[in-house]
Design brief:
Blueprint: E1 3-8, E2 14-19, E3 25-29, H1 35-47, E4 53-58, E5 64-70, E6 73-78, H2 84-97, E7 102-105, E8 112-114
Organism: Flavobacterium ranwuense
Protein name: DUF1508 domain-containing protein
InterPro entries: YegP-like_sf
């Protein structure tokens, strides 16, 4: 099962990543000024995962990636994949495990684990 991992960026804004069962990052969220906004969007995504759209792209260097759209808004961007098959496997993992994934908070000195 994957996990949502909350952390801080260098500019002190918050972000989260969704990691695969093997610990690889599948996508990274946009930035959030406040941590509770980040937490709210994770919960919103977990409940509305069936309504998410995955827009697939190919970079100029030939790598594949997707933009995750939720309610018509850009929500997150995936890592780069070497093949379109691997890209699809990443999407499949989000759809399969996203709604049941735990949330890990690594944004401060205290680590918080929640389901």
């Amino acid at each position: 099962m994957g996990a949502f991992v909350i952390s801080k960026r260098y500019n002190d804004e918050y972000k989260f990543v969704f990691t695969s069962r093997k610990g690889k990052i599948i996508f990274t969220s946009l930035s959030y000024e406040l941590k509770f906004e980040c937490e709210e969007d994770i919960e919103k995504f977990k409940t509305a995962i069936d309504a998410a759209d995955f827009l697939k792209f190919k970079s100029t260097s030939g790598k594949f990636y997707f933009k995750l759209m939720l309610e018509g808004n850009h929500f997150a961007t995936s890592r780069k994949y070497t093949t379109s098959l691997r890209l699809q496997k990443g999407i499949d993992e989000i759809v399969r495990y996203g709604s049941n994934s735990e949330v890990l908070d690594f944004s401060g000195n205290n680590f918080i684990f929640s389901d």
